[in-house]
Amino acid sequence: MSHEQTKEAIAKGATSLGIEFGSTRIKAVLINEHFDTIASGSYEWENLLKDGYWTYNQEDIITGMQTAYREMKQDVEQKYGITLQTIGSIGFSAMMHGYVALDRTGELLVPFRTWRNATTGVAAKELTDLLQFNIPERWSIAHLYQAILNEEEHLPRIDNLTTLAGYIHWLLTGNKAIGIGDASGIFPIDESTHNYHPTMIKQFNELIAGRGYPWTLEELLPKVYLAGEDAGTLTDAGAKLLDPAGDLQAGISLCPPEGDAGTGMVATNSVRKRTGNISVGTSVFAMIVLENELSKVYPEIDMVTTPDGSPVGMVHANNCSSDINAWIGLFREFSEAMGYEADSGKLFSVLFNKALEADPDGGGLLSYGYYSGENITGIDKGRPLFVRSPESRFNLANFMRTHLFTAFGALKIGMDILTEKEQVAIDSILAHGGLFKTPVVGQRIVAAAMNVPVSVMSTAGEGGAWGMALLASYMINKAEQESLDVFLEQKVFNDVAGEEIAPNPSDVKGFESFIERYRKGLAIEQAAVDHLVENGRD
């Protein structure tokens, strides 16, 4: 589209906006009807450990949303000389799972508890045994039941149990809505009805019946919506909350709020069966769209859905890039101490590319980037760890390769269950996230870990906010009866270029050697948890 055509599209609201609350950044992306990004804005934030729970300040949730929107709006004004007043459709996404408990007035009863908390182990195990369905520690229902087991005081006052995306959507529309992908990380979904599983709802209600709460589970949960459905309208109060300057008009349709897993699938065109995607950030997860149900329950595999309701096997590891970022920060400090200007992009590029010069297995080195507990490997607290033997080949290349390998170590353990025990077929995996900004390196590492061709699309850098904008666009621009996979395949990605890298046999063999060392070394990581005190306290 030309500059004038884009300006006209903005003026008449032929646009869609996606805002995603990621683990380290809130990002707003405005797209046109051709799915091109025409403006964006962002806000950096960090989680904090408060009173034993990983959380984000409520003030940051609102401030971050407003800042990301304001920057996007200013981007529009600077590029096109027009004040943004209306948008064709809006969608919000956020980190899945966690615990947002609201009272009747919409006040948070406890600070938002994120997916990162490993405090619900007892509840998750009891619910998995009861429902015969894997309930991970991250899931909202596990957080709720753990609060019940802990007899927390706020429980009788709950009126709305939702996710971060559902909370934002409710603030702006007044509608207790949730997209089915995000809903599948709250409570198990019945594939035949595209709603919460009724038998399991009944089992949960019976489990807590004697505790005297003035609610049943179905009364707390938001209504489930499929991709493409209208999930509410921006209210006057919502418009003022999003745009305190008062320029944005009310009445805009909002699509169902989704989780970051769903937006990752959309952003990588991975909603068809036998396709998958890997999303890399503070955590890492792989989503494989399944042809058949799994033969049994695995605690390492989450059963969730695509935004249009297809079953997905999800392997989610709590830790990925945090420790790599910390080491890069150390190298930056050294560079600055030596009097050299440290450009972040060059640091990542140089250090990542050193990994390609390493021994295939990383030279016998071992690390665990566990900033928090890791559910797949059964470690309940974070203790970043680097260890080597005197015989290890300790050099920069092996050091970097080891840290890139370990970023996908826990994920590899879960994925092996799908591919080896369940014989799940995967035609292709698409990867996205900051780790892939350095060409080739991240793809080679993931291809080695998964032993599957890995592609990074030219659109991969757009991320989940762009994926959420696509879902918002799908709601208003789809043809009658047009499915989400067809919409993405034929309209969004029909001419998008992608770079595919096949597994290198030497890399695959090297990763297998590393993962064997990784498994054996978990006892060392557990010892660090047992004996290394946190913040000077036992």
Which range does the strand content fall in?
Answer: 15-25%
Strand order of the largest sheet: 17-18-16-15-21-22-23
Q: Which fold name is given in CATH as the topology of the largest domain?
A: Nucleotidyltransferase, domain 5
Number of helices, where a helix is a run of at least 4 consecutive DSSP H or I residues? 19
Q: What structural category characterises the helix and strand content?
A: alpha/beta
Identify the CATH class of the largest domain: Alpha Beta
Task: List the domain count as a whole number.
Answer: 3
| Uncertain ranges | none
**In whole angstroms, how far apart are the ends?**
61 Å
Family: Belongs to the FGGY kinase family.
Domain Carbohydrate kinase FGGY N-terminal: 17-241
GO molecular function: D-xylulokinase activity
InterPro entries: ATPase_NBD (IPR043129), FGGY_C (IPR018485), FGGY_Carb_Kinase (IPR050406), FGGY_N (IPR018484)
Structure description:
With 538 residues, this protein is an alpha/beta fold. The protein has three domains: 3-259, Nucleotidyltransferase, domain 5 (2-Layer Sandwich), CATH 3.30.420.40; 269-317 and 412-501, ATPase, nucleotide binding domain (Nucleotidyltransferase, domain 5); 322-407 and 510-531, no CATH class. The strands form seven sheets. Strands 17-18-16-15-21-22-23 form a seven-stranded mixed sheet, sandwiched between helices. Strands 1, 2, 3, 6, 13 and 14 form a six-stranded mixed sheet that branches. Strands 4-5 form a two-stranded antiparallel ribbon. Strand 2 (25-32) and strand 3 (37-44) form a beta hairpin.
